[in-house]
């Protein structure tokens, strides 16, 4: 059974720092991996999607990497800002029905 | 272009009451999904519909029913609400093609007392 883990559960860093969020999965047979952002009381915003054949994807200050063989993905945030404060979730697509299997998320706080 | 919409945004039910959560998408997506999110946990799939006229169980289907009314709409029904169904419910739809990206609605916060 595919399981997705995100460590740490919470992270607090000063503004301006670069940081890395981690996501690990137990079954390397995935289709894609997707990173989302969730603001309190709100829905989910897709940040980056990495296809299984790709190693990384970039969008602005965000860079996501994927290493299927080791079952790991990282989300790198450069020059963090208070507006980056949110919960970040990763999810893997496990099969042809495109069901997402989710991690519990990392709650990120950027201190001004 | 509204994307994925959900109604209501908030709901309080008493144990044993029934209700239907509504979801609609205007992106012409074939696939739609219902998830629940509980504190400290990732989202869990309740039901999904790969195309109009089909529905399948996800990880946690007990206590729920769904209807894919047409290509746009996918509803989730609680026949007899229980406190364990207190959660935030998200609907999503998926675009076609290799990227497989899912788009989410804003969620419905349901409390069962």
Protein topology:
The complex is a heterodimer of chains A (112) and B (113).
Chain A (H helix, E strand, L loop, with lengths): L3 E2 L4 E5 L4 E7 L6 E7 L5 E8 L4 E4 L2 E6 L4 E6 L8 E8 L6 E3 L3 E6 L1
Parallel strand pairs in A: 2-11
Antiparallel strand pairs in A: 1-3, 3-8, 4-5, 4-9, 6-7, 7-8, 9-10, 9-11
Chain B lengths: L3 E4 L2 E4 L5 E7 L5 E7 L5 E7 L6 E2 L6 E5 L5 E5 L8 E8 L7 E3 L3 E5 L1
Please tell me about this protein's structure.
The complex is a heterodimer of chains A (112) and B (113). With 112 residues, chain A is an all-beta fold. Chain A contains no helices and 11 strands. Chain A has strands spanning 4-5, 10-14, 19-25, 32-38, 44-51, 56-59, 62-67, 72-77, 86-93, 100-102, 106-111. Chain A starts with a strand and ends with a strand. By secondary structure, chain B is mainly β. Chain B has strands spanning 4-7, 10-13, 19-25, 31-37, 43-49, 56-57, 64-68, 74-78, 87-94, 102-104, 108-112. In chain B, a hairpin with a 7-residue loop joins strand 9 (87-94) and strand 10 (102-104). The radius of gyration of chain B is 13 Å and the shape is globular. Chain B starts with a strand and ends with a strand. Chain A binds chain B through residues 4, 9, 31-32, 34, 36, 41-46, 49, 51, 89, 91, 93, 97-105, and chain B through 31, 33, 35, 40-45, 48, 50, 56, 58, 90, 94, 98-107, 109.
Keywords:
heterodimer; A: mainly beta; 11 strands; B: 113 residues; mainly beta; 4-stranded antiparallel sheet
Largest sheet of chain A, if any?
A: 6 strands, mixed
What sort of overall outline of chain A do the alpha carbons produce when their principal axes are compared? globular
Low-confidence stretches of chain B: none
Cα end-to-end separation of chain B: 36 Å
Radius of gyration of chain B: 13 Å
Radius of gyration of chain A: 13 Å
Q: How many strands of chain B? A: 11
Oligomer: heterodimer
Helix and strand content put the structural class of chain B at mainly beta
Average pLDDT value of chain B?
92
Portion of residues in beta strands of chain B equals over 45%
